[in-house]
Amino acid sequence: MNKTIAGKLSILLLLTLALLYIWLHHWNRDAPTGAETTVADTDGYTVEVIMEKAPAQLLKPNPLTIRLHRADGQPVSTAKISYELFMPSMFCGTVSGEAAPATTPGSYQADAVPLMTGSWVADITVQVDGQRLQVKHPFAAIR
Ligand SMILES: [Cu+2]
Would 84 disulfide with which of 35, 110, 123, 136, CB 3.0-4.6 Å? Predict the structure, then answer.
């Protein structure tokens, strides 16, 4: 192989690797992960966490629905449900609040307001019949 061609090829290879590295890095940092719904069976209850908008909108109230029912399917409307939003890879503070019972039995409603774009977790605490259930719902926030 010609020396100049080999040189050009190695530069091209380096450039490709550099671009690949930047792309992967960018991808990992900026593609927030998250789901629309998290369903958890815990201590005889099923907790469903539904983010109506996925990804969520930055600095906007995003409807957050929590549905609670017993293992036998009976909805539970007497729980006290609170939430705490945090970013798992940052120390930028938390946003907390309570979910109010909605008209549908076993359904609770809150508005989640993410303060930054990226990956968030909604940490849901359900207090029901002297029990404390915890469900973590990952979600993403975009501009
Ligand atoms: Cu943050």
Answer: 123
Q: How far is the CA of 140 from the centre of ligand 1 (A)?
A: 11
Phi, psi of 131 (to 5 degrees): -105, 160
Q: Report d(CA 59, CA 5) in Å as an integer.
A: 53
- The full DSSP string for 19-73 is HHHHHHHHHHHHS----SEEEEEETTEEEEEEESSSSEETTS-EEEEEEEEETTS
CA neighbours within 13 Å on the CB side: how many for 105? 6
Query: 91 CA distance to ligand 1 centroid (A)?
Result: 7
Q: Is the pLDDT reported for residue 31 higher than 90? A: no
SS3 93: coil
Measured distance CA(35)–CA(6) in Å, rounded: 47
